[in-house]
């Protein structure tokens, strides 16, 4: 038969034998399907009933089948969404643990930095107390160095005088 343009393919009721065949295929009952088809075509061949006698499947059954298919599809989607949600949850927990780890490390670093700053301030104060003593020691060193230089100059002069006097004495004794 030729389909009219007024009705879409989904609106045309399904033949009874097609409905049963599709049902058996969906359940995977292929031996039962073979038996059904053999008997079905045998009855039609014998004329026990005609295609008009069998009629069409009521739309309720077709609609139930469509709803069942949609329900199965939605269940698959639900499972996929559950898997995706579990993966996202695991990733979130992992990220949270990493965040906590880095936050803890940051706090440790801040504590260590503060401790080092306190140590530096304490050492600066400690060495600042040595500065006047260091200045005093430097001045003593400079003074002692000057005195040493003066003493060595005086010694050199004294040695020259002694040498000069010894030379004069020798010249007087020899002469």
From TrEMBL:
UniProt GO BP: axoneme assembly
UniProt GO cellular component terms: axonemal central apparatus
Top-level taxon of the source organism: Eukaryota
Keywords: Coiled coil
PANTHER family: SPERM-ASSOCIATED ANTIGEN 16 PROTEIN, WD40 REPEAT PF20
Ranges in coiled-coil conformation: 64-98
Protein name per its UniProtKB record: Sperm-associated antigen 16 protein
Annotated source species: Cariama cristata
